[in-house]
Amino acid sequence: MGLCAFIGDEVSAAGFRLAGVEVHAPAPEETALLLRHLIRESEMVLMTAEAADRVPADELQRALTAQRPLVLVIPDVRGRQQPADIGSLLRRQLGMAE
Fold first, then answer.
1. CA 53 from chain center: how many Å?
2. How many domains does the chain have?
3. What is the pTM assigned to this prediction?
4. Is residue 93 a part of any domain in this protein?
């Protein structure tokens, strides 16, 4: 079982590879299958927002809310696509938005 895995573009993957993380830059149609595999094999899975968009929404939501492994959606190194701002979403839902 791997400690940490990364799913995303090759440029972002390079930095994680240097840190010793198991990295994957799958073809778009392979992303959901790879995520399912890594969820069973890793303690933590990091994926770019672009890669997360390739996973069916209900499947991604289950992965993000499961207790194990920790699954996080992060921006890619180029800043092409940002993950949702969870804090803003929660404040809006609670009626606390500015």
1. 9
2. 1
3. 0.79
4. no
